[in-house]
Structure formats: C-alpha cells, structure tokens
Amino acid sequence: MWRTQGLNMLLFLVSSLSKWNFSAVIAEGIAPPKRILFPPEKICMVWQQRQRAGAGLFNVGNTCFLNSVLQCLTYTPPLANYLLSREHSRACHQQGFCMMCIMEAHVNKALHSPVGAILPLAVLKVFRRKSGQEDAHDFLCCTVNAMQRACLSASNDLDLSSQSTTIVYQIFGGFLRSRVTCFSCEAISDSYEAFLDVPLDIKVRGFAVKIPWWHGHFGGGLGAFQHRALCLVSRCKKNVAASKRFTVHRAPKILTVCLKRFDCFTGGKISKVVEYPEYLDLRPYMSQADGEPLPYSLYAVLVHSGVSCHGGHYFCYTKASNGLWYQMDDESVELRCIDTALRQQAYLLFYVSEAPGQGLEPSRAARGISWVLTDFSVSAFSPPAVVCFYTL
C-alpha cells in the first residue's frame, strides 16, 4: 500500500520503540487502572499563557508535512500547557531518545522565540528520511505514539487501563463501546476498544459532504448495522440475526478527525468538498446519551494542497492562545479569520473539549448531525487502536 511504502519516517528510531499495545479489546467492561501515571486533575484545558502566535517553521525540503503537524500539536492547549511547564524534562530519567523531551524543547522554542521563524531541529534530528513528501496523518500518529511510549518508559508490565492514564492518552485517547444484541435470545455483549483519532471515509455520493457526521436512523448511536453472526453470548450457539452498535464510551479531551483524502490503492486525491463546523456536541453519540452536552470547539485545521499523496503541500490554520486564528505555512504566520479556516480542503481536524469541569464554559449549541455510519474496523494504515468509520 502507498501509505506503508511511503512512511519513511517510521525509521526514526522506531527500532527503539516497542508497539503501543492499545489494539487489544477489553472484554465485558473497562477494568479500573491499577496505577494512575498522571493525575487527571492536573491537565489544564485552557491556556495558562496568552500571547499571539509563535514562530513559523523553516522548510528544509519537503518537510511541510512535519511543520504543519508540529504547529497543530503546539497549539493543542492541554499538551502545550504541560510542555511549557517543563514538568516532564525535570522528572525524565530516560536514556537517549525521548519524544516528550523533544516536543517540550520544540514547543517552548516555537512559542517563546523572538524571531519570525525557526528550524525545528530537535524534531528533524530524530528522523532519517528520503527527500520525498510524506503523509501528515502518518507523522501525527507516529509522533503521538512516540510521546505515549516516552510516558511509559519508566513503567513495566502495566495493565491496559493503567497505560491509558498517561498525560498523552488522557489528552488524545478515548474508548469506544461495541454492543452486539442477539435478535433470537436478546442477549447483549459489550466490548471496549481504545482509539486515538477518527479516520473518516469521505467517499460518499454527491459533490459535498457535511459534518458533524454521527447521526441517523440508527437511534442516535455512532452507528449500527444488522448482520448474521454466531451468538456466543447465549444459548443460541448458531448463526442468528444480530445488531451491532458503536458508541463513544469515554470521550477524548482532544478529538482528532482524519478525512481520508487519499485513495488507498492509487494515492490519488479525493477533492470532495467537506463542510465542518466550528462547534459540535458529542453527547448524542455517547454510551450514556442522556446528560449535559459535551461541546467541542475547533482549534486547528491541517490542509493538503495538491492532486495526490505523492506530492503537493501541507499547511494549517491554528487558534492561538489569544483566541485569534492564524494561517501557518512553513515560515509564514499570517492572521486569518475563522471563516477562512472553515472553508478549506481539510485533511485533519482538531477539536478541544469544552465540557464543564475542564475549566471552560460551554460554547454555543452544536449544529445538527447529518451523517450515518454503517461499519467499523481498525485501520490497517494507522497505529494500534485507531478507529475507522465508514459512511454510506
């Protein structure tokens, strides 16, 4: 596949990183963690320092994919707050490569630099890559996995639930519930799976697609479908009709959506117009759909310009700590309005939770939801435990 062939950046010390094993399904409920690696009450969702946008990033030859991802991560409020505090480096005893230390150095330099543009040297040093263009989503997944691995470096033999208590997973990660209901004996089987982002298939009919995307005639869940399955949770023990429904069981603090713009076989660009909102509400798609709204607001949009994954250009729009939007195109940082950020051919969308109790006031009501989900699987091209949704 083109994405695995093109992922040269996986060479960046990947031999020293063991797989982050979040792909395992937790059967019959999420067990409580045996250890809490980072206290959740210490995660601050609002900016602790307010200032204009920081420095741009020099392109040293087809590194726009890296620059745009770094800028989106730099303006992720809970991650930036933690990295700006330098808490990690003060406590880190890891020998050699540590992605959290590297990101901490980069974010502090980018946001505090007196010059207009800097070279992201700390990140570039850990990559061995060819001169061709790389995929921004692959680099994002690789970076987040490396940060997670760094947070786990001092802990051995942790259970799955304890691994999800790192600051990285508490920021980016969530859990999905899969519920299978047997139509014959009415038995119910629940399983839970971790996810870090939501790859969304945009190969749907029509010229334009509108999101928020989780809704429909499936009763408000993330999606459901009927199929014939072997009923293993009851006395049936035979192929019977069953339904399968997916809901968000634990919502992430940062919701990352990847619009699947590239054909898996040819690498060609899918240039479909996709409308995305500034605000959305995740509550109707939770396992517990009743309750207060779970509002999210957009804070970064990563854009690909070009006709295929093999070339083109990446840049992004980010919302800085002063509440203003900026277009970040390598070394260029220009003030823009939110309407411009909402009219892009987006590839990656970043939403931050504004749920009460996280230091934020709920924003305006989210728009209506218009997409129907019909299937679910783990992506073959994404890191472990990334959730894929397929639309009609």
What does the model show?
Residues 1-27 form the signal peptide. Belongs to the peptidase C19 family. One of its GO terms (molecular function) is cysteine-type deubiquitinase activity. This protein has helices at 2-5, 64-74, 77-84, 87-91, 99-112, 121-124, 136-152, 160-163, 167-172, 338-341, and strands at 26-27, 56-57, 117-118, 174-182, 188-195, 198-201, 208-210, 223-230, 239-250, 254-260, 273-275, 279-281, 295-305, 313-319, 325-329, 332-336, 346-353, 373-378, 387-391. The protein is α+β, with helices and mostly antiparallel strands and 392 residues long. The chain has one domain (2-20, 55-391): Cathepsin B, Chain A (Alpha-Beta Complex), CATH 3.90.70. Strands 6, 10, 12, 13, 14, 15, 16 and 17 form an eight-stranded mixed sheet that branches. Helix 2 packs across helix 7 (136-152) and helix 3 (77-84) packs across helix 5.
Any guess at the CATH architecture?
Answer: Alpha-Beta Complex
As a percent range, the share of strand residues is 25-35%
CATH class: Alpha Beta
Q: What is the β-strand count?
A: 19
Q: First CA to last CA: what distance?
A: 24 Å
Can you tell me the overall shape? globular
Helix content: 10-25%
Rg computed from alpha carbons, rounded to a whole number of angstroms: 21 Å
Number of helical elements:
10
Count of distinct structural domains: 1
Element layout with pairings:
Elements: H1 2-5, E1 26-27, E2 56-57, H2 64-74, H3 77-84, H4 87-91, H5 99-112, E3 117-118, H6 121-124, H7 136-152, H8 160-163, H9 167-172, E4 174-182, E5 188-195, E6 198-201, E7 208-210, E8 223-230, E9 239-250, E10 254-260, E11 273-275, E12 279-281, E13 295-305, E14 313-319, E15 325-329, E16 332-336, H10 338-341, E17 346-353, E18 373-378, E19 387-391
